[in-house]
Amino acid sequence: MKVEVEPTTAFCQVLRQQRLARQLTYQSLGLRAGLPSKFIFNLECGNERPSLDTVFKVAKALGYSGAGFVSLIERRIYGIDRELVSQSK
Predict the structure, then answer these.
(1) Containing structural domain, residue 51
(2) In a domain, 1, yes or no
């Protein structure tokens, strides 16, 4: 499979997409995840690289298992979401 997006970029994109889909602010997501809101902002902007512990905290705060959230990131990395959209047209 061809990498379409770098993993850190994919994480940032999925984090933002999922946060906005749930209408969460940086502060509200931070409270749910037990992380400072500024850190959530920096993760989303790509200014911080998430540890595995952080990925799992964010996943849980967004209502995902760790594996489920990583699966979303992986789909973004390999462009699987775009392939599914173009196949359905």
Answers:
(1) 7-87
(2) no
